[in-house]
Amino acid sequence: MADEQQRLAAMMAAQGGKGAPSQEELEAQEEAKRSAEEQRRTMLAACMTSEARERLARIAIVKPDKARSVENMILAAAQRGALTAKVSEERLVQLLEQVNEREGASKPKITIQRRRPNLFDDD
Questions:
Q1: Hey, where are the domains in the chain?
Q2: What is the DSSP string of the chain?
Q3: Could you read off the pLDDT of 25-73 as tens digits, one per residue?
Q4: Residue 60 CB neighbours (<10 A)
Q5: How far apart (Å, rounded) are the C-alpha atoms in residues 41 and 114?
Q6: Residue 59: predicted pLDDT
Q7: Topology of domain 36-103, per CATH?
Q8: What mean pLDDT comes out for the span 87-95?
């Protein structure tokens, strides 16, 4: 029994203690997520006009996935150096239309056909 515990302890040490993450590791991961999100918000603020940021914030309330896609497009363009000026509200609308076209092509359209009740049924 003692040999099994020693082997188990040796295996855990060899793996680097890859058991459940400790509280410190979880806190470090949360802090890394928060700092990455803060950096993302800072970059978006630098790349967008205040009107465009407000509009994107309103969109994010209703459709967070769509807002995230637009944010990703803006950040990618900024990293490539493709942004010559701040993203205006008009440019934001164009980006939203691009996202809509892309998502519309990938999602199947569902139509519901309801049967009409036969009011003059002789049963």
A1: 36-103
A2: -HHHHHHHHHHHHHTTS-SSPPHHHHHHHHHHHHHHHHHHHHHHHHHB-HHHHHHHHHHHHH-HHHHHHHHHHHHHHHHHT--SS-B-HHHHHHHHHHHHHHHHHHSPP----PPPP-TT---
A3: 888 888 889 998 898 899 888 889 999 999 999 999 999 999 999 999 9
A4: 15
A5: 46
A6: 92
A7: Helicase, Ruva Protein; domain 3 (1.10.8)
A8: 91
